[in-house]
Design goal:
Layout lengths: L5 E4 L2 E4 L9 H14 L3 H10 L2 E8 L5 E10 L1 H4 L5 H18 L5 E9 L25 H8 L7 E4 L14 H24 L9 E5 L23 H9 L2 E2 L6 E7 L2 E8 L7 E2 L3 E8 L5 E10 L5 E4 L2 E4 L2 H15 L28 H11 L5 E8 L5 E7 L5 E8 L5 E7 L13 H6 L4 H16 L3 E6 L1 H4 L3 H9 L11 E6 L4 E5 L11 E5 L4 E5 L2 H14 L7
Parallel strand pairs: 4-5, 6-7
Antiparallel strand pairs: 1-2, 3-4, 7-10, 8-11, 9-10, 12-13, 14-15, 16-17, 17-18, 18-19, 20-21, 21-22, 22-23, 23-24
Helix pairs in contact: 1-2, 1-4, 11-14
C-alpha cells in the first residue's frame, strides 16, 4: 500500500514526494545565516549554522500551473527565542528571512514562509537531575533534519529501528478475534522487550538516553538509505506505553516520551527513553509472537517466536537483544549504582488540595476550564497540571498558562486551527520563568520542595503578574550576583538586607519601570518564604511580610495602581 501523504488541489492530487525541495537545506541555512549576521541576530545565525533548517512541504495549489508552499523552521533554544522583545519583532525577522529564501529560489512555483520556533522542553516525571557527564533529564523536539541525521547512524546500544508494531486492538476484517488478540499481545511483549533492552543498554552506556524509532527499516537499502513506513495508524501515547511496559517491568521505568515527526510525507514515531539509574527486568513471562500475512496484508496464521521467563534483564549487544548474564548484570548494577545517589526523584503522585482556587477564565466560560485542563495535560504527556489562566485569542485560539505540579515548572500553551481545519497544540516553557532554571534547572525544585499549597498559589500569581506587566523580570540573586560581603553588597545593589549567605539564593521579582522589587527568602530558617521584602522605589518604602501570599497581594495592588500614573 502506498503510504505517501497527498495534498489535494483542483486538478487531482500530488504526492509530497513528487516535488523535491528546490534548494538544499545547507545552502538555505548558510545564506539565511549571513542575513542574520548582517542584522546582528547572533542567536538566529548560530542556530542556522549549528542546527540548520527544517523544510516541510505545507501545501500544493494547482492554480496557474501549481504553487508549492514550503515552511522553513529555525529552531532556537527557549532562552534565545524568548529574547525577542515582542511578537512583532520576531514576525519581522521571519518575514525578512522568508523574503531572502524566495529570492534564492527565483520561481513562481515555490513560496517560502519562515517560522522561528522554540525547542520544546518535555517533562520527565520520575527522574530529574543527574550529575553524570552527558545526562539529559529533558528532551527537546526532534526536527525532520535531526531525524535524518539519526537515520544514517547504525543501530547500537541506545538506538533501535523498527519497521512497525501491530498494536491495533481491532482485528482486520475476516481475522479471528481470539487469534488477533494473541498476536497483538505478543507484539506488545516485543515492544516491552525492546524498551527494557534500550533502557538497560550495556556497560559503558550509563547516563545515556535511548531512542526507539518506529517506521524505519533496520536494514538500509542498496543506496545506504533506510526505507520509511508510515505509522500514522499507530495511535498510541506515552501513557499507554508506560502502562504496558511497567506492568511487566521491575522496577518501573521512570519515563517514556513519544513524538511524531513528519518525514518525506510519512509519520515516524520516535519513542524516547531517558536514562534510568536502575537495572530493569521482567516481572512476568513474555510471549513474543510473529504473524504470517498473505499478499493482501491479512493475518492468516501466527507462530510463537520466543518466550522469556520472569526476572529476565534484557540488554543490547550491538544491534541484537539478549538476556543479560550474571556477570553482565553485576557490571551494569555497579555502573548504575555509582551515580544513583546523585539522582533526585520527585513525588509520583502530587496531591491536589480540595480548596484550590479556580483558574482565571473568560467571562461566562468558567465551565470550560476543565476542557482546557484536559488539553494542557494531553499536551504535557498526561502530566497533572494546575491551570492558572486561560483566554481566547484571535480566530478562537486558546491560550493558557499552567504549572506542572511535579516539578513546579510554568508553561505557555496554545491551541489553534490552521486554514485546513487542522488543530495544533504548542507548549513551551514560559519565557519569564526561564531565568529561574539557571544556573542549574534543578535549583527551582530544591528550593520549592517545602512550599505549601498557598505558597504555590502565590507563586502562580507572581508568574502571571510578571507576564501581564511589561518590564517584569524574575531571577535568583546568589553570592555571585550580590558579592562577597553579602549584607553590605545586597543593600548597595538591591536596596535590601540579606544578613547571611546561607539565605542565598534569594528570589527576586523586578520591575524597574514601575520601581518595584520583591525579595523572597526561600531558604529562611523558619520555613519556605517566611520573610518577604517589597521595596517601592517611588516612595522609598520597604514592607516586610512573613507570608508569600500576603507579599503577592501587596505586589499586585502596587502593580495595578502605578501604571495609571506617571513614574519618575
Amino acid at each position: 500500500m502506498d503510504n505517501s501523504r497527498f495534498v489535494y488541489g483542483r486538478n487531482g492530487s500530488r504526492s509530497y514526494d513528487e516535488c523535491p525541495v528546490p534548494v538544499s537545506p545547507e545552502t538555505l541555512a548558510n545564506t539565511l545565516a549571513d542575513l542574520a549576521d548582517a542584522r546582528g541576530l547572533n542567536v538566529v545565525s548560530q542556530a542556522l549554522r549549528t542546527r540548520g533548517v527544517g523544510i516541510t512541504l505545507e501545501d500544493y495549489d494547482n492554480w496557474d500551473g501549481g504553487i508549492w508552499t514550503w515552511l522553513i523552521t529555525v529552531s532556537l533554544p527557549p532562552r534565545d527565542w524568548a529574547a525577542f522583545s515582542s511578537i512583532e519583532e520576531r514576525n519581522t525577522v521571519e518575514r525578512e528571512l522568508a523574503e531572502l529564501a524566495n529570492a534564492i529560489v527565483v520561481s513562481d512555483a515555490h513560496d517560502f514562509t519562515v517560522r522561528l520556533s522554540a525547542i520544546a522542553v518535555s517533562a520527565s516525571k520520575g527522574v530529574t537531575k543527574s550529575t553524570y557527564p552527558g545526562s539529559k533529564d529533558k528532551f527537546v523536539s526532534i526536527t525532520p533534519e535531526e531525524l535524518r541525521q539519526i537515520l544514517v547512524r547504525p543501530e547500537g546500544l541506545k538506538l533501535d529501528f523498527k519497521r512497525e508494531y501491530k498494536l491495533n486492538s481491532q482485528p482486520p476484517a475476516g481475522v479471528d478475534k481470539k487469534k488477533w488478540k494473541i498476536f497483538v499481545d505478543g507484539q506488545w511483549d516485543e515492544l516491552i522487550k525492546d524498551v527494557i533492552a534500550l533502557t538497560n543498554g550495556n556497560s559503558g552506556t550509563v547516563g545515556q538516553d535511548a531512542l526507539l524509532v518506529v517506521g524505519v527499516d533496520d536494514k538500509p537499502d542498496g543506496t545506504g538509505i533506510r526505507p520509511l513506513y508510515d505509522t500514522s495508524h499507530l495511535q498510541i501515547t506515552s501513557q499507554q506505553i508506560m502502562a504496558k511496559v511497567n506492568a511487566a517491568c521491575d522496577p518501573p521505568i521512570p519515563d517514556i516520551l513519544c513524538e511524531r515527526v513528519e518525514l518525506s510525507g510519512k509519520t515516524i514515531l520516535v519513542i524516547k527513553i531517558p536514562f534510568s539509574p536502575h537495572l530493569h527486568e521482567t516481572k512476568r513471562q513474555l510471549n513474543v509472537s510473529k504473524g504470517i500475512f498473505n499478499g493482501a496484508g491479512e493475518l492468516i496464521d501466527l507462530r510463537p517466536d520466543k518466550t522469556y521467563t520472569a526476572h529476565t534483564a534484557f540488554i543490547r549487544r550491538g544491534e541484537d537483544i539478549s538476556p543479560a548474564t550474571s556477570a553482565e548484570r553485576l557490571v551494569l548494577q555497579r555502573e548504575k549504582s555509582s551515580i544513583q545517589e546523585t539522582v533526585t526523584t520527585i513525588d509520583e503522585d502530587p496531591e491536589i488540595p480540595e480548596d484550590e482556587p479556580p483558574p482565571i477564565s473568560p467571562n461566562g466560560m468558567e465551565d470550560h476550564a476543565s476542557d482546557v485542563i484536559r488539553m494542557c495535560e494531553e499536551a504535557y504527556s498526561d502530566e497533572p497540571i494546575r491551570l492558572i489562566e486561560w483566554h481566547l485569542g484571535e480566530d478562537q485560539q486558546i491560550n493558557a498558562l499552567f504549572r506542572e505540579r511535579r516539578r513546579g515548572w510554568y508553561f505557555d500553551f496554545s491551541l489553534s486551527q490552521d486554514r485546513k481545519g487542522t488543530w495544533s497544540k504548542v507548549r513551551k516553557v514560559c519565557p519569564i520563568f526561564l531565568p529561574l532554571l539557571e544556573p542549574d534547572e534543578h535549583l527551582w525544585h530544591e528550593l520549592t520542595c517545602s512550599a505549601l499549597p498557598e505558597d504555590w498559589y502565590a507563586l502562580d500569581e507572581i508568574i502571571r503578574l510578571g507576564i501581564k506587566f511589561q518590564g517584569s523580570q524574575l531571577r535568583w540573586a546568589g553570592q555571585y550576583a550580590i558579592g562577597e560581603n553579602v549584607a553590605d553588597d545586597a543593600m548597595e545593589k538591591f536596596g535590601v538586607y540579606v544578613p547571611d549567605k546561607k539565605l542565598l539564593p534569594v528570589f527576586l521579582f523586578i520591575n524597574k519601570r514601575l520601581g518595584l522589587l520583591l525579595v523572597s527568602y526561600f531558604k529562611h530558617p523558619d520555613g519556605f518564604a517566611k520573610e518577604n521584602l517589597l521595596r517601592d522605589g517611588n516612595i522609598n518604602e520597604c514592607c516586610v511580610t512573613k507570608s508569600l501570599i500576603q507579599a503577592q497581594h501587596d505586589l499586585e495592588e502596587k502593580l495595578q495602581s502605578y501604571p495609571e500614573r506617571e513614574i519618575n
